[in-house]
Batch of 3 targets.
Target 1
Amino acid sequence: MDILAESTKILADILDIEGREITPETYLIRELGAESIDLLELSVAINSRFNIEVNDDELFLRTLRLHLRTAAGEGRDAVGYLAEKYPALTVVRIAEILADMGGGPVLRVKDILSYVAWHGKN
Amino acid sequence: MILNFHGKKALVLGGSCDLALTLAAAMMEAGIYPLLTFRNEEGQKKIAERLSPGGGSYGACYLDFGERDSLASLLAQGGDEIDFVVDFVQGDFEGYVAAADEARVYQYFNDNVSFRAELLKKVARIMVKRKKGRFVFISSVAAGRTNPGQGFYAAAKLASEALYRNLGLELGRKGITAVTLRPSYIRAGRGKAYLEAHGDEALRLVPTGRFLTESEVAETILFLLSESAGGFNATELTMDGGLTACK
């Protein structure tokens, strides 16, 4: 199954943005304007389309800042700590996320794809 | 009025109580398939005795609030086609706040609030997928006006009302709405025993001079499930003959 094609189709339907280019690098919130209710719908659609259990907090990186505070409080390395919390993300992607946090919500389409691919395998 | 219910499916939580059974019979007559939950053999038997003779189509499934495995099997049986949820479930807990057993308090809120939140999340996600759904929560006037000893009952009802209210305001744009009905004295269920003991005294407080009947509450719930009542969302409706308006 082409996860990217399926995911972009789901996103276009939920966000009513048919025809607009969506790539793995596209930001869901910053660029596509996804709101909380859209993310809920996305989570339900992913669960249904790919038949995987979805943890919304993990899928949408909602607890990212909380994890960072915990890592700092415990004197842990942030990248290593986040890699444990987000097993679907690569260390390279986590480092990219940390460098990008000042620009707003970091969630990109490729994070969704990673989640689906990882949970589909595990 | 739009009262077209044909082909709809309703999950009736706490389906073995008298009011739920009256509602289920009315639903079957209106073309709704009710799936009623029971938590013990007695409840299962009561559902069969009341509904089987009518010859209509209904389902019954075990669900015990607090027992998470029973929720998984209910959802497996309920499938992906739940149009309505009517929730009658409420555990009993009478006792003064200053006298209650702590372990029982934790258990009570786990069963009546936390479990309900999990159930609502899962059913709401089914409805989100279908982009439609309607919840009716049966609360009580005691949620707003309690007597001594009803603190925990009222607290669980109010917390549950809040969950339903938020479902309605969070998912209204996606076609999913929720409303709470707060009925007062009904000669049914746990209200029956109370009215047998205190009926005359209670009746003096009701401006209409009568108690509610099961069938009028069931008809009101059916109306609340209808498209015509869709404007009632994220709110609580009191059905008490004017009882709580009195000083």
Target 2
Amino acid sequence: MTLLDIVLIVIGEIMIGIGALADLIAAIGMNRFPNFYLRLHAATIGTIWGAFLPLVGAAFVAAGCKCLGEYRWFMAGGALITAFIILILGPAGSHALARGTHRSGIVPVEPKVVDHLEEDESMPTSQETREIGEEEGGSP
Amino acid sequence: MSYGEAFLLGITALAAIFSTIATYMAIMERDLLKAVIFSAIQSTIYAFIYYMLMAPDIDLVYIPVAVGLYPAVIIALIKKTTREEKP
Amino acid sequence: MTGMTEIQMFILAILPIYVAAFILYTFRALRGPSISDMVLAIDAMSYDLAAFLVILAIYFKQPILIPVAIALALWIYSLDIYVSKYLEGKELGE
């Protein structure tokens, strides 16, 4: 076991430990926040800090551990691919879910100060008003 | 049996208990869309149980069917019919 | 070789934190007030479960267990899209 392997294993174990703590914090926040739109914040912590970081750490550990045999590069590559997939799909899924929820209005934005998105959706956009004006102007 | 094996089998037993609770709530729910989500919870936990029982080949087939295709078919069906279950 | 390496002992020490997080996620997924809360909780739980499965594959020293994590992380994304499409009132594929 060379020095590079030891450094890789220690860095990977630190990342896995940080990921476990972030996971617990995100789970507590998921239970304690009062609103769906605040729970998105906890879900973001659980996705990026709790899943992406331990996967990169697991790739480091798998690359540095001689005890896994020659297939350790397969494990490291699989872990990196999973981390990349989660980095792309997690925010995209959360965004799609929040958009659908806010447009359908099944969850009230209960403890709020101001909601600019709702005001923007309730009033017609500038393009719609221009179309209405053109229709009222009549055809030549 | 070492500490590690006992702990991992304990996790599997706990997952089985939670999947039973999810199945019960999916049967007793009147809102059909919520029932689909409960069924998705049960499917995810079953994927974990298959993994812990060292059957990754079954798991690779079970995940697309139970997590991907089955909720799509049921949600499309709910969309075409009604959402509330009639008593 | 005394049965367990240092990496396996570290992973065994880390595992209870992950299990506690999964139990809390499952509580929120089972009793969420609205559908969006349940879907969000099961989504975050599945992404963390993918990381947990990779760590367990390192613990078991079996490389054949890795593709399960990739499949789980890819397919749980579809549940978000189905539910958000339903909530926006559109058909699938529109």
Target 3
Amino acid sequence: MKDIEYAAPRSLDEAAAILNERGSRARPLAGGTDIIVQVREGCRDIDILVDVKKIPELSAVQFNRDEGLTLGAAVPCYQIYNNAEVAQAYPGLIDAAILIGAAQIQGRASFGGNLCNASPAADTICPLIVHSAVCSIYGPDGSRAVPVEEFCSAPGQTVLKQGEFLVSIALPPPKPSAAGRYLRFIPRNEMDIAVAGAAAYVELENGMIGSARVALAAVAPTPLFVAEIGERLAGQDITDETLREAGEIARAAARPIDDMRGTVEHRKELCAVLTRRALKGAIERAQENA
Amino acid sequence: MAADKQYRVVGTRPIRHDGVDKVTGEARYGADIHLPGMLHGKVLRSPHAHARILRIDTSKAEAHPDVKAVITGVDLPQVADKVQDLGEMVVNLKDESNRILATGKVLYEGHPVAALAAADPHTAEEALKLIDVEYEPLQPVLDVRKAMEPDAPILNPNQRTSGIGAGDGKPSNLARHFRHERGDIERGFAEADAVIEREFITSMIHQGYIELQNGTAHITPDGRLTIWCSSQGAFSIRDQVANICNIPLSMIKVVPMEIGGGFGGKTGVYLEPLAALLAKKSRKPVKMTMTRAEVLTATGPTSGSYIKCKIGAKKDGTLTAAHVELYYEAGAFPGSPVGAASGTCLAPFKLDNVRIDGYDIVVNKPKTGAYRAPGATNAAFATEGVVSELADQIGMDPIEFRQKNAVQQGDRRADGPLFSKIGHVETLEATAESPHWNEPLEPSSDPAKKRGRGVASGFWFNGAGAATASISVFADGTVSLIEGSADIGGHRASCAMIAAEVLCLNAEDVKPQVGDTDSIGYTSVTGGSSATHKTGWATHEAALKVKAEVVNRAAKMLEVDPDEIEYHDDATLSAASKPDAKLTFAQVAARANSTGGPIVGEAGLSTGGAGNAFGTTIVDVEVDVETGKVDILRCTTVQDVGKAIHPSYVEGQMQGGAVQGIGWALSEEYVYSGEGRLLNASLLDYRMPTTLDAPLIETIMVEVANPAHPYGVRGVGEVPIVPPVAAIAEAIYNATGVRMYQAPMNPAYVLSRIQGKA
């Protein structure tokens, strides 16, 4: 491994300046659980790591029940699941926060880093998508907002332009009779990357499904938001058949590949099963949250 | 001695002597070596699975100011085409030399092509990019069946098949075909009421030790070479380096460091000869350590295999005939464990009509190494699987079926030898009577989760061999024990307990350590489950010598004839004629220098009579029939352990073997691309079980003493990995009604079987 530089800017503008100047030779560093491994193993060739943890906006967690949650891009998982109010308001996010790595990794790894790493198998992106989360981006031209489902453009690639970086992720306020659920399928019970994953968010109205959002992990070049499931489920009764249909839509929407983690056939099958189970889990939580 | 003999120390559970060092980080492993002026070596490895090396240009690397030495295959001395026994594996030295550094062709991804040493590891790693290698890629061969096809690309054009089928003179990837045959299998199958024939496939898998391979070499100006490394046998490492580097063995000292797991995988050399050559060239100490990716791609995993198995049985459960064909991946050079597979696969069964064909086949994958009961688990998956299917078909309880056919002392093993005293029948009886087998498995409340229980047995030969132990008495009445076996499984504690037993001391009064190759006599590798047998025995003999000398000294001190001395269980000595003058061991020890000099006892022996091991595993699984995921709910390992010197470490071996078997059954596999590149060369994607994937393994120790050993010891480390794969397959069948013919039984495979697609 060659020597690389390290910078630790203390403001948004300082960070944007370094990132803009060094372009693709620079990479932001949050928890480092992906980037350090990538650099060390020669998967990514860069000259400078720009540590963003000293920028206040990136390390803040702001939550109230009226305005929702703003999650600094560098906030590690443990701070999220240890925040009782956040955990209670967004159990679908906690599902992801507690299954990334083990305790040591959760002490460093952030949702923002997971999002910017832009793996199709990322565990946090699908839960963010179904919670209608929006990315706040800062760069040489100032701020802009992008819905999470539009943030990843290809495996390992995002819509961030030269000099831009992720500042925070905003989630709408929690609603009554609504909840999310994320399920990941791995062959083991820990320490693994999703063969497939499904996140679901459901808002109930009068005992029926008012609206629903489903997103799938590891079955397309980017985390896959399946809008069609929401369209099909809106206004439907909660029945096994409805959930089964949602699963079939997920199966049809999935565009997985064969690799060492799974086969096309198995992943499509998992999409159907996980979508059904995640919806069921979200509905049960929403009913408890009535 | 019988297993029911009463001991003071043997059979108790003292805290292991190396325990505090290990849990506090004081223990020194290979990577902890730092020498003044030390360089760091790195290996340039082939990116191709099969290619001709057209040209290697090291000039740019050699010109780098921080690079102190560069070596390629031409720097290795020419070695003879001769065979060396590594304890569990027999290797050809020419192949070994070629494996250490390729010449002419590369035969697997990760095959070393060059190595260099530089001031620090990062510079060394970067400098590898300065070595220019031109390859002519060749079609790789990755499957044993394809490797045997007439038009298959040939790895080694000089290789001809030996054994059956030898003599057609054509180059072949089939290195050896052998057969064990007895009786008349055609007649046997004709007498059967049920005959089942199945095919099984298993993937190449790795031992998965946590500590990465390492080696540090230093050569003094007078040519004496010292190597520090973690291995399963310092003497074996010394001898391999001597042969490969053409250095007299007396010029080499190997210092054994603590070892972070071996499981068979640390019997062969990888970095040590390279570090020695780089040290020689640079005149500096050179340290080398592998990365995890290097360990997975380029050390010695165990064979993937294709196995055909046909077995017949009568309605009453009597087995009538068996034919097993074992096709094993050797990796890039001949020497798969197919021989051991042939000796183990039908060992639990009394059979008069049997034929076993073994095929040792080279493929473009790393040369396989030993892994815990090498070859036996693959083969038992097939034979035990067919036996379970037969029991099911004729409607007999699977344990009863195995009991009906179980071998005992005097029976002939399928591949020839007669069994001496063994405990298979006792183990099956303990299984049938176990709490696990007799408690019903409750169904899951979730309709997607199906539960089932399976059982299977396994066999391992066990080993014996050459060993040395040396005991010196300290003036304070405790003793030092130096022994030659690398301690991978806790036998250091067992040997200390044996010394304490003989000398009537406490286990804590013995300070055991593993000596280097200049400080203790030759001791063969810690493999084949031999260490407690052979080194324990050597310790016993050494302790008897010390005891005799202590008696002599006590006699001198009491001024009586040694024959009059009584050595008591509390380590006191007395003479009947001097009833008031009782001596303690410590008093004798304190006076040693004035009663004749230091008291030492040493024994070197070559033990025989290893005493075979049988084990049976019961396992409960829960299968998610919608995803194909299998969870292990409960697992019990029952095993004839001969005599458990330190029961905790025996149980630990049984549990460890079971967990590795669980990984083999469910999640571990080498995934290769069509070009022969290993796609999952990390512990993220090479999936060993985590603590959440295995329940606490229950153990039942059956003690049928090995009459050939002073304490009745049988090796215990290997047999527990043999039955689990077959037992889990049977449990999945009992949960889902679908038979498994592939390992790993990963979720994709299990689901496709449930859905009837594979």
